[in-house]
Design a protein that fits this description.
globular, 7 helices, alpha/beta, 6-stranded mixed β-sheet, Nitrilase/N-carbamoyl-D-aminoacid amidohydrolase
Length: 257
């Protein structure tokens, strides 16, 4: 299956403009033959902490994603803020080419360093959907720093998709952690990040598709781009069979006094 990550400069709290910027990149991905395309975290509004205000755009954002999936005959992943109790949630959806929502996920780890935990509540469970024979588990940005989340889903996953607003000053961590999650999970990882500045903070993208050994099959940095590469569930199965590291996991580890 061909997959694509769309990195672009998000329009701050302006969904209509973000949709306008994203649409031609989605078309480019479809033209390249991609069957699954992912957009960044909160792609319609940017990573705004005005949670109630940006959550009001959830319905319009989901409708636009479903429309693009139908128009381009693609599976589309996109992130957005949505209303919830006690606080809004940072979420994503995966839409099928017929416009159906196949998967809904809420970010489990709000980014406390930026105060996200004061404005958004965290989710509670990972979610996986099968797309063209590939088992896909999407997560959001700060989730990348928590390998136990990936361990919870790894046995049912061929491709992790990480959508993000990850700043340039921590780009080394972004690239290193994407590779680490691919290597330890022995599967593909697609990282999709934004470019441009938000509140004076630059973002350089560094979107990439990594293989089960952690090597980049495709990548882009610095400007709006579409990262396209092939993902094969059989390759994941073969790597795990040849190097059965996951079978050696210890799921219950004590601590010496």
């Amino acid at each position: 299956m061909l997959v694509a990550g769309v990195q672009f400069d998000l329009a701050w709290e302006d969904p209509a403009e973000s949709f306008r910027r994203a649409a031609p990149l989605l078309e480019r991905a479809a033209g390249a033959g991609a069957q699954l395309v992912a957009l960044p975290e909160m792609f319609a509004t940017g990573f705004s902490m005005d949670a109630a205000a940006v959550a009001r755009h959830a319905g319009a954002t989901k409708a636009w994603l479903a429309e693009q999936a139908q128009r381009l005959r693609l599976h589309v992943i996109g992130g957005y803020a949505e209303p919830a109790e006690p606080r809004p949630r940072n979420a994503l959806s995966l839409f099928a080419p017929d416009g159906r929502e196949l998967l809904h996920y809420q970010k489990i780890h709000p980014f406390a360093l930026a105060g996200e935990d004061r404005h958004f509540s965290g989710g509670a469970a990972v979610a996986t959907a099968t797309v063209e024979g590939v088992r896909v588990t999407p997560v959001i940005c700060y989730d990348l720093r928590f390998p136990e989340l990936f361990r919870a889903a790894v046995d049912a996953t061929d491709l992790f998709v990480v959508i993000a607003n990850w700043p340039e000053k921590r780009r080394h961590a972004w690239s290193t952690l994407l590779a680490a999650r691919a290597i330890e999970s022995q599967c593909f990882v697609l990282g999709v990040n934004r470019v441009g500045a938000a509140s004076g903070e630059p973002h350089c993208g560094d979107s990439a598709l990594l293989d089960p050994f952690g090597f980049a099959r495709a990548s882009a940095s610095g400007e709006a781009a579409v990262v396209v590469g092939s993902v094969d569930a059989n390759e994941v199965a073969q790597v795990r069979a040849r190097f059965p590291f996951l079978a050696d996991r210890k799921t219950s580890i004590g601590r010496a006094p």
